Amino acid sequence: VQLQASGGGLVQAGGSLRLSCAASGRTFRRYDMGWFRQAPGKEREFVAAIRWSGGTTYYADSVKGRFTISRHNAKNTVYLQMNSLKPEDTAVYYCAAGSAVVGTYDYWGQGTLVTVSS
Question: How far apart are CA 109 and CA 95, in angstroms?
């Protein structure tokens, strides 16, 4: 599975962005999908994940209630809708494919930069 993340950019605090992650291959629907982020000088952290069926989602406490993960299996795409953005959400965001239950991800996209200005 090859992953291509897009949709990052510069936004003011309180604004919204929607990230997309397009996957190649017919096996996309077999994988749970996750979003992670890495801020400058910090370790990569989990943001959100969605099971292969789309029926179960997981969120980091820091984004719960503000971010929504979704997927469209027919389009081989997973989304991250980010609302009420804060400066501390500034990071490179990565999508990944693997197992949300086990917490291991085998395939990673290249990342898209989100910058939230105060």
Answer: 5
